[in-house]
């Protein structure tokens, strides 16, 4: 049904990009000649991993795991980290996959909110109240779906209420569209 309507009010994403915004016609033609339809390296081809590393100073290809979309990365992160009885602190409103899986793995989900009255800025006092010794993950969705609010890096510094001991082994998932 969703694909048969004239106006789709259920879509939460940004306007989709065109292929030509990612790749030139010449590059596309080169792929047309070169690409074989076979199994690829499923954890990310080396050239893609190298490119992703350039976004994160100090990262090496061994730090990067490429997945089929962020949904798979979110799932692997929660599966790897969360045990029954753990707590997961979640920014709301949000894309609801992570709190759902976390509950499925037996965790308690503790919310903190973006406040509309503050331009959808995160309520860092509430975040601090929700973190306990049982907290296994803090899930931030930034830029945020559905508000489109984007917190500058500085907002997550210790001076702003964010505590550096909360990120001992942080995992980042990021949506990147790339031809394989
Ligand atoms: C915050 C967030 N995480 C993950 C996803 C899933 O992304 P993907 O299609 O890359 O699996 C979405 C999709 O809208 C999203 O908004």
Give a verbal description of the structure.
- By secondary structure, this protein is of the alpha/beta class.
- The protein contains five helices and four strands; from the N terminus they run H-H-H-E-H-E-E-H-E.
- The chain has helices spanning 25-34, 46-53, 70-81, 97-104, 124-130, and strands at residues 87-92, 108-115, 121-122, 135-139.
- It has a four-stranded mixed sheet with strand order 3-2-1-4.
- Helix 3 packs parallel to helix 4 (97-104).
- The radius of gyration is 19 Å and the shape is globular.
- It starts with 24 loop residues before the first helix and ends in a 41-residue tail after the last strand.
- Pyridoxal-5'-phosphate (PLP) binds at residues 12-13, 69-71, 74, 95, 141, 145, 175.
Extended strand count: 4
CATH topology of the largest domain: Aspartate Aminotransferase, domain 2
The 3D shape can be described as globular
How many domain regions?
3
The CATH architecture term of the largest domain is 3-Layer(aba) Sandwich
Secondary structure tally, helices: 5
Secondary-structure element sequence?
HHHEHEEHE
**Largest sheet data:** 4 strands, mixed
Which structural class matches the secondary elements?
alpha/beta
Describe the strand arrangement of the main beta sheet, using strand numbers.
3-2-1-4
Uncertain spans:
none
Overall mean confidence score, pLDDT: 87
Amino-to-carboxy terminus distance = 30 Å
The radius of gyration computed from the alpha-carbon positions, rounded to a whole number of angstroms, is 19 Å
Strand content: 5-15%
